[in-house]
């Protein structure tokens, strides 16, 4: 079992409603899509915009409507208090800056989110999440 993972999120498609990325977990077969808020990117809370590209630390967020624990990301620009979580959902109405995982994508939507979130959690749950990282890059089409 690996003690840590690097999750790569590459932003590829954006509309006036949302941003969709490819994602993969280094040294695994796990990949899919992530839906976030629309751009431009902002480190400021309460703007309903995606977070800036960059490298993020991960910790467990306990409690809340998405289950007993979900991954939370933060860095020097985006504080842990902004509550940027990785969780299931389908479209921009399901996020306030969080990252929503999905198995497939449509315009402004990801599908089979609970399935893909379950696969990600199965991988991350046994680890010390604080040793893992999430890296967001941008390569828009």
Inertia-based shape:
globular
Average pLDDT score? 95
Largest sheet: 8 strands, mixed, barrel
Can you tell me the CATH class? Mainly Beta
- Summing up helix and strand content along with how strands pair, one would put the structural category as mainly beta
CATH topology: L,D-transpeptidase catalytic domain-like
Give the domain tally.
1
What fraction strand? 35-45%
Radius of gyration: 14 Å
What string, H for helix and E for strand, traces the elements in order?
Answer: EEEEEEEEEHE
Domain DUF5675: 9-125
Pfam families: DUF5675
Protein name: DUF5675 family protein
Explain this structure to me?
- 9% of the residues lie in helices and 42% in strands.
- The protein is mainly beta and 141 residues long.
- The longest helix is centred in the last third of the chain and has 12 residues.
- InterPro entries: DUF5675 (IPR043732).
Q: Topology of this protein?
A:
Blueprint: E1 6-14, E2 18-25, E3 31-37, E4 54-62, E5 69-74, E6 84-87, E7 99-102, E8 104-106, E9 109-111, H1 113-124, E10 133-138
Parallel strand pairs: 1-10, 6-7
Antiparallel strand pairs: 1-2, 2-3, 3-7, 4-5, 4-10, 5-6, 8-9
Features:
L,D-transpeptidase catalytic domain-like, mainly beta, single chain, two-stranded antiparallel sheet, 9% helix, 141 residues, globular, eight-stranded mixed barrel
Quickly describe the structure:
By secondary structure, this protein is mainly beta.
